[in-house]
Amino acid sequence: MAPVSQEQLSKGSAEYFLNSGDKIRFFFEKGVFDTKGDFLVPKEKSINKIGHALHAYDPVFKQMTHTAKVQALARNLGLENPVVVQSMYIFKQPGIGGEVTPHQDATFLYTTPLGKVTGFWIALENATQENGCLWFVPGSHTTGITRRMVRTPPGTIPCTDFIGTERVYEDCQFVPVPAGKGDLVLIHGEVVHKSEANCSQESREVYTFHLMEAKDAVWSTENWLQPTLELPFPSLYTSN
């Protein structure tokens, strides 16, 4: 999951976001609406991402998530009981695609013990330094986390809050990781990563999903994202 600002969660979209874990919902880029709520850009260029249950309800992305290649890779990684916790189609629109600030996925997808979450990030177009490729801090997956996003009590605005503080990182610590169309980037749950705003005229579309190794792991009940009766976290090794 990409970081979500308190400003975003304090508005009417809070419940829409918080209850999106078992649905397919649409999230817009900042600055695409005027004060009347009308689009300032074409609708098809206004979407930031679609999430967070494409893996369960969209036939194309369900097949992509559970493909034999993905399952084989998960087994090679030693995952015995991986479950899919969320999925997103991220657009990084040309000219307006916003930055994703430095973060660790475990801040938002917390497990006990840590080390149980892995992101699968698939480039659907070339991802370059110009259009917003990923950047990583090498070795940062070994330093633990210092901040968690948790749900606040029902009815509270904002609907989430942060415990702890994020470390400060210098630009020189990050290494760019350009990716070609069709490339897969595996993201450790505690590695620090980011992407810059897309100021180019080329989009940078990706499909990404997160797995949790459910064996000997506990998903935090304080996470914003929770399994539901309608959609328990599905096993990667089955497609039903």
UniProtKB/TrEMBL annotation:
<dbReference type="Pfam" id="PF05721">
    <property type="entry name" value="PhyH"/>
</dbReference>
<dbReference type="GO" id="GO:0051213">
    <property type="term" value="F:dioxygenase activity"/>
</dbReference>
<keyword id="KW-0223">Dioxygenase</keyword>
<dbReference type="GO" id="GO:0046872">
    <property type="term" value="F:metal ion binding"/>
</dbReference>
<keyword id="KW-0560">Oxidoreductase</keyword>
<comment type="similarity">
    <text>Belongs to the PhyH family. PHYHD1 subfamily.</text>
</comment>
<protein>
    <recommendedName>
        <fullName>Phytanoyl-CoA dioxygenase domain-containing protein 1</fullName>
    </recommendedName>
</protein>
<keyword id="KW-0479">Metal-binding</keyword>
<comment type="function">
    <text>2-oxoglutarate(2OG)-dependent dioxygenase that catalyzes the conversion of 2-oxoglutarate to succinate and CO(2) in an iron-dependent manner. However, does not couple 2OG turnover to the hydroxylation of acyl-coenzyme A derivatives, implying that it is not directly involved in phytanoyl coenzyme-A metabolism. Does not show detectable activity towards fatty acid CoA thioesters.</text>
</comment>
<keyword id="KW-0408">Iron</keyword>
<dbReference type="InterPro" id="IPR008775">
    <property type="entry name" value="Phytyl_CoA_dOase-like"/>
</dbReference>
